[in-house]
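User: Before I run my own analysis I want an independent prediction to cross-check against. Here's the chain; please return only the structure tokens and, at the end, one sentence I can use as a sanity check.
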Amino acid sequence: MGILKLTAMKPAILFAVLVLLFRIAIAQESTIHGLIVDKATGEKIPNATITMKGSRIQAVASEEGKFSFSFSGGGEYVFIISHVGYEMLELPVQLLPGEEKQVIAEMVTYAPSGNEVIISASKKAEKMLDAPAPVLVLRSTEINKFPGTNILEMVSRLQGVEYTRSGVDEITVNARGFHNAFNNRVFQLIDGRNTIAAASGNLPMFNNGSIQKDDIEKIEIVLGPQTALYGPNAHNALFNFISKDPRKHPGTTVSFSAGNQYQFSTRLRFAEILSNRFAFKLTGEQSSGMEYEWYDSVYVNIIGTGNPVDEIAIPENINNLGFKRVRGEFHIYYGISSRTELIISTGGSRFTRLQVTPTGRNHLRDVTYGFLQAKLVNKNFYATIYNTWGNLGKTMIIPNYTKDFYMESRHRPVDEAERWASRPGNRLYEASQRLNADLQYNREFENIGLHLSAGFNYQLERPNGFGVTLVDSFTHIKITQYGAVIQADKGLPYDMRLIAAIRLDHHSNFGNYPAPRLALVKRTESGAFRMTMGKAFSMPTIMNQFAGVGRFMFGNSGKGIEYIPNGSPIDRAFAEYTTPLKPEEVKTWEIGYRGDIGKNVFADVNFFRGINKNFISPAQMFFGRVLSVNGIPATQTQRENAGEVDQQGILRNASFITYFNYGKVKTYGVDLGMHYYASRFLVLGFKYSLLKSNLNKEDPSIDANKDGFISPEEKTLNAPENRIIASIEFPNLHRGTLNARFDFRWVESYDFYAGNQMGTKEGKGQRGVMELPGRLIFKNFNRGALGGFKTVDFSLSYKMNTNCRLNISITNLFNTEQIEFVGAPSIRRLFMAELKIDLPEKNKN
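Assistant: Structure tokens:
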């Protein structure tokens, strides 16, 4: 009857009733407004991190130390507040329905930085001290003082991460050795989204992606194998970028950066709270600059003998050394309830720059990246689905272009030589995409001290190389991966935790791979000890699996490469198969400590020991004519490589290059980080990393091409054994408005091999030559071993007023010789200045 009466009401009365019910519902919303201050001085603490205990909800306080949270209805809540230089604070709050409460959080100074809350080590909020893995954090307070556009520059300050710079714009990172010009052993996430490129190289996007630094709240770096929680390719390290929530960081930020090498960048971040449920943010950046005027050597045979001894060196032909980048993102946040939210995100980038590869350098022109994502977040579950696109644009292979232009311009007009050198055979074409879906559920059983979580992941890769870069002329390549994980986190007596996880992944080309992780954490009065065992996999890239570049370099997966060996009749009945690739694998055992070691002295030390096997080699020469790759027909078209058939029908002089697995290498090392908080105005830092292996032993398992000889490139670690970083920081100068910092970095000299690239102490200053039994292998120009330098960087940050900040940095202050990568120039002094203007939303707390 009640329903009948309601439906019989007049429309005006019904509308009035609905409005009244809506207002009653709105009136039940509870809000907490907080102010964070120094307990001793009463000064406001800016940019502290606030996390709601037992959830993934996180925020950062404003420059005035203020924050706020709103909830539908009342309840009991506990907020965990952390900030560098202060002890972590737990703030319990009781809210009644419809109540608006003001609270003050008083923090005690000089806590170790390990007390802050992170989410990446266990996929849940926990104190950094309790993390079951070595974790490094770049915080918003540090990022806000950095004037550059490439956030990876800040990684040079961290222990355990191998930082290499190959130009003004290009920076690569690695961990625990075996670096390469194409390195996919480091995994990148942004807000739970896999940001590995959809293109066949499968490299992390990092500075080429769509996020810009003014929208980064923090970066959590977890060292060691992380496959158990994050899936394949979380092999040596995880870089988890966490962006700013527009409800916690509303307002407008406009930034301008400029420096030498014609560097210039403009950035915009605009975020607004539309209602209690809706918020959005929009970001954008345009940046440009000029690379160092430096040209690598390219070798060309002008007399046509085919003998590398007769080749002469000519400089790379690069028409434009400029780099440029345009990127942006748009996000909509909708609060379904106080504990559940829906986030829709999209973004993209377009960039042009130089790229070092194992064969030489590529000129990436108008390369594009884009994504579209939907994400549902709740205290107990997390679900997301997203698609990623990648297009290689008008990318040119510089060595091929240089050779062809040089040879043709000797007897043709320049414009004709340009047309020939720019033909499709010297370009890379690709328009690929990838679909991902992730689901995670977690539950806390507080009465028994147990946290359980489970997850499922799905990935579908659909590369398209247009029959140029991949063997997909007559077929559509599809690669699927899916996996499931379960993790238990159990509290034990004597302040201990046991964390156990097991993951099983299936790859359409490589089958099933389990990845376990087991960790024990023991809290003490001053810190925490940890012991961890983990296993990780790195899947071969799309290029490793299905390459068909120039119909000379081929992928080697699935069924392997079907080929006719030289000396055999040109008949498929005599065909053989290569041994197909397997995923790379690493197992590690680690022990570490994070905590106080004296008054105001904080340390983080980690010892690890690993067994690495099934390394994927650089492209290796093989002899025969290719018929198929993993069952896909592939015809060699280059006459000089396809060989010839003699009068008896026997194949002669055919060759191709491909990839193989090799090696079982034992590694061990130590990463140490220490900070001494001398006062509010002085912080000293010291970092040290040691990495060693058994590669100096003549182990037959590391013979990649199985020729019975272990070459220098087959036993190189591609990383320095010793690295030292030291820092002196002067915070809170001039009434807290000025911050100055010096960073010293020493990198030990080391040899490096990557395909045709070679940088070694022996043979420096001449063409790289590797001597093997009975033959010589000629490589690119050898500029000497990498590293072997000492360098100092300087940075200064000045808060001009509430809304404006001026940042300045000088990289390589004393302009020392600093060669960090093969096929790249010395990194000369770089200067950068930034003006950042923050215009908070008018109702920002």
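Sanity check: The first strand starts at residue 29 and ends at 38.
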